[in-house]
Amino acid sequence: MRVPTRFRYTLPLVLAVTCLCLATSSFAQRLPENVLPEHYALKFTPNLANDTFEGEETIDVRVMQPSASITLNAVDLQLHDVTVGKQTAKVEMNAKDQTATLTVPNQLPAGAAQIHITFSGTLNKQLRGFYASESGGKKFAVTQFESTDARRAFPCFDEPAMKATFDVTLIAPKGDMAISNGKQISDTPGPGPDQHTVKFSTTPKLSSYLVAILVGDFACMEDSSDGIPIRVCAPPPSQKLGDFAMGIAKFAMHYYNDYFGVKYPFGKLDLIAIPDFSAGAMENAGAITFRTNLLLLDPKAASGSYRRTVGFVVTHEMAHQWFGDLVTMKWWDDVWLNEGFATWMEWKPLDAMHPDWNVQLSSLFETGFAMQADAMASTRPIHAGTANTPEEIEHLFDEIAYQKAGAVLKMMEQYVGPDNFRAGVRQYIKAHEYGNATSADFWNAETEATRKPVNTLMEPFINQPGIPMVSVSSQCAGNKTQLDLRQQRFYSDAKLLGKPSSEVWPIPICVKTPGSASSCEVLDQAQKTRDMNGCSNWQFINANAAGYYRSSYPTKEIAALEPDIEKALNPAERFSLLTDQWAMTQVGRSQVNDYLGLIEAMRQDRNRIVWSQINDSLWDIQDDLVTSAEQKQFQAWVRSLAGPAAQELGWQPKPGEDDNTKSLRPVVYLIVGIQGDDQRVLDEADKLAREYLHSPDSVDGSMIFAVLVLAARDGKPDLYDVYLQQMDHPRSPQEYTYLLRSLSFFPEPDLQQRTLQFALSDKVRSQDTATIIAGWQDLHPGRVNWDFVRDNWAALNKKLPPVFSGAVGARPASQLCSAADRQQVADFFREHPIPGAERELNEAMESIDQCIDFRAKQSPDLAQFLVRQSKAAAGN
Ligand SMILES: [Zn+2]
Questions:
Q1: Which of 23, 356, 387, 457 reaches 20 to 30 Å from 503, CA-CA?
Q2: Bond before 147 cis per omega within 30 degrees
Q3: pLDDT (tens digit, 9 = 90+) per residue, 23-75?
């Protein structure tokens, strides 16, 4: 799955779906291994008018030990005729364990056996299992099985290691298309007068969670790459917006075939847009499903950030065809073997296809979210300790499994070299294809292929929670610099950070000094000194920002670096320095005054990712530190900081402008307009937004979202209605997404309430309700959203599938910043627990604590900074 993480408006899109199901806590008892599946023949007849389906299956199994009973998974299904061989079976359903136990009168001998079951179920509205979706008045029956929901569509051995082959037959209404994992091998009329029967080729061995069944009014565009047919399918006529994704898919198919040395194994590839979808996308073998707005793209309406996001989602899901589908983790506690790998891999083909997009920078930006989560006391190791219940399993699809694991793989790749690393990846894939693997299988393959100690380096990063902090200090003697490097676990809680920590990681540290290339060495103790030739007044200890750790520098070294920071460090390194300094400031190891000084030293920087980080930290400062009395002064300082860049860039791209500049412009304008409250910028945005809504070509695609948000921030009530009207007839999935996200920027309290009520109404798809609530952008006083969630919890849970409860509960809570609010949140979730979401809620509580601490420590420092600024401004 791809579930891009947090929400900040520079990354306008998706939702952290950490699924936290509200159903009664069901302990997913592991299936006994006395019977294993080998092949399924599945037939489904969805009845779209009634939201029901009928199913029939024959499972070829191997009985390992003689037994009279077989237990498999099934939930929310009615089983009718059930036989094993020639014997009729008695069926006992266990809703708590989500199993069905079939018992026959005579013991089954070891060897081959055949189970035959007819069953029926409901096409649900929960966006999981076999569910109903709707678009343009037409109904669709579609599936989402990861992690444990194949059992809601057919009785099955629903564990990733119980792989089998699948023959799927779909009986669809006449005129509707049927899609599954295999190639279509026949399409015949009947059995009913208004039906047709579509059969698909036998799949290779698959885990049950990777099966896909889709019926509905789809239309496809077709092409191929390396001899593999590729289609992009969607409710017509929107498949016409599939060109962009098709181009990426064709390129990535060839790129991955070459990289992995194992040809794409599933015969054909379909990329399908689903009107209602819980995650961002899902890597079903050969039949990848997507949210509509993450597959279909109108090039004229999409910003650079949006393009990169769609590109990432396509390449991520395609990487899964090897990491996940061909080689699957043995159990969900190693879900990082799927998600970390796909996250590490997703930028490679995009970078090869569009070097000018600098996509590595975007993936580095996302790593920042993992670093934040991993600095919490409530974080977890990459290899999960508990993954027993469906709720616990769903909860593992988080920043740790995706971005942290991806970052650790990148660090290892840099350490052993990309060619060596690829040799290890190929060895791993070849050894486990059509089977399953564990963490150790991967690092053992790497160790063997690279002849480097990847196993001892990786193991602590996979099994130990948290992120290391490396502190550096240096001394010059003779013509040598002695570096003192120390590591400890980094916490965003100052009290925890102040205590000695016992964890040690073997960290490849690559040091860069003025005028010399980086040199790398492993820091595998709590403290080590390292001698370097020559003397210099700064050292940068995370060359290329490839290491997964926080760096802590003495203030004087940052000051020494500031004057020529742009020449000394590349964009990734500048971004990493800024985020590290910001983390040190938040925890009180550095002063906000020094951080703002660093930003000022970087005001000439014109890299998009540097300004994205500036933007993020300014939001936090504005939210957490700036008092209403200081508001005007702070805004004036922001205008002086970013105004010149905005003026230099102008509102419109210049001919031939590069991708970085096009992507930088909206970030800078959002800073000046929103953090700086620049009335001229807001006025112009209001004018441009109205022009755009009237004539879409009047604003360049790179600026549409920024213009709509800035105009919303200016808050003219009539514009709100214009946005809502336009959302009834969006000209592209991008436009709908932009307008939806812009609604929460209107500052008037009554419009904020209207947006929240709108999110709850039938006019908004449940997937988008979650986007509004969890992506809400509160400036002062920052609690409108929480109050709404608290007061409408029952209604929200009625509307939202369980998958969204955690994000919609925890995200608004995490924005609060007082002891009284903390108590209120704790009381609320004690009364309204969200099973499986405990860690997410604990993180929200930690965020509140840290905000309280941050405010107490840094408010006086910010006040002094602002006084100095206004004196300096008055002196000018
Ligand atoms: Zn994924």
A1: 387
A2: yes
A3: 333 344 799 999 999 999 999 999 999 999 999 999 999 999 999 999 999 99
Helix (H) or strand (E) holding 21: none
The pLDDT of residue 231 is: 98
pLDDT band at 8 (very low <50, low <70, confident <90, very high): very low
Same fold, 36-320 and 467-559: yes
- pLDDT digit string (tens) for 298-338? 999 999 999 999 999 999 999 999 999 999 999 999 999 99
Is the distance from CB of 446 to CB of 417 less than 8 angstroms? no
Q: Which two tokens stand for residue 69?
A: 């009973």
The percent of residues above 90 in pLDDT, for the chain, comes to: 88
How is the chain split into domains, by residue range?
A: 1-30+748-860, 36-320, 327-463, 467-559, 665-747
* pLDDT average, residue stretch 265-293: 97
Does the pLDDT value for residue 6 go beyond 70? no
**Ordered DSSP codes for 408-476:** HHHHHHHHH-HHHHHHHHHHHHHHHTTEEE-HHHHHHHHHHHH-S-HHHHHHHHHHS-SEEEEEEEEEE
Query: What is the distance between the alpha carbons of residues 719 and 727, in angstroms, rounded to a whole number?
Result: 12
The domain over range 467-559 is classified in CATH as 2.60.40.1910: yes
Query: How many angstroms is it from 316 CA to the middle of ligand 1?
Result: 6
Q: What is the distance in A from the centroid of ligand 1 to the CA of 2?
A: 4
Q: What is the pTM of this model?
A: 0.96
Residues whose CB is less than 8 angstroms from the CB of residue 137 and which lie 6 or more positions away in sequence, other chains included: none
Cβ atoms of 791 and 768 closer than 8 Å: no
- CA–CA gap between residue 827 and residue 821 (Å, rounded): 10
Tell me, in angstroms, the distance from the centre of ligand 1 to residue 170's CA.
27
Do 647 and 684 touch, CB atoms closer than 8 A?
no
H helix or E strand, kind and range, residue 179: strand 177-180
CB of 287 closer than 8 Å to CB of 317: no
The two tokens of residue 554 are: 């003495």
**Residues designated as active site:** 317
Report the alpha-carbon distance of residue 401 to residue 588 in Å, rounded: 28
CB count, 10 Å around CB of 134? 15
Burial of 404 (0-12, 13-18, 19+ CB in 10 A): buried
CATH of 36-320, one of 3.20.20.70, 2.60.40.1730, 2.60.40.1820, 3.40.50.620: 2.60.40.1730
Q: Using the mean position of ligand 1's atoms as its centre, give its distance from the Cα of residue 233 in Å.
A: 20
CA distance 572 to 15: 25
Q: What is the distance, to the nearest Å, from the Cα of residue 439 to the centroid of all Cα atoms in its chain? A: 21
Domain 327-463, what architecture?
A: Orthogonal Bundle (1.10)
Strands 184-189 and 219-225: unpaired
**What's phi and psi for 637, nearest 5 deg?**
-65, -40
Question: Which architecture, in CATH terms, is 1-30+748-860?
Answer: Alpha Horseshoe (1.25)
Q: State the distance from the centre of ligand 1 to the C-alpha of 79, rounded, in angstroms.
A: 32
CA-closest candidate to residue 437, choices 145, 835, 160, 797: 160
Tens of pLDDT, residue by residue over 641-700, are 999 999 999 999 999 999 999 999 999 999 999 999 999 999 999 999 999 999 999 999
In this structure, what token pair is assigned to residue 735?
């436009």
Span from the CA of 349 to the centroid of ligand 1 (angstroms): 16
Q: How confident is the model at residue 783 (pLDDT cuts 50, 70, 90)?
A: confident
Cβ proximity of 142 and 176 under 8 Å: no
Q: Is the pLDDT of residue 197 over 70?
A: yes
pLDDT of residue 19: 27
Q: What is the CA radius of gyration of the chain?
A: 27
Q: How far is the CA of 315 from the centre of ligand 1 (A)?
A: 10
* pLDDT 10s digits, 202-261: 999 999 999 999 999 999 999 999 999 999 999 999 999 999 999 999 999 999 999 999
Residue with tokens 């399908």: 272
The Å distance, Cα 337 to ligand 1 centre, comes to: 10
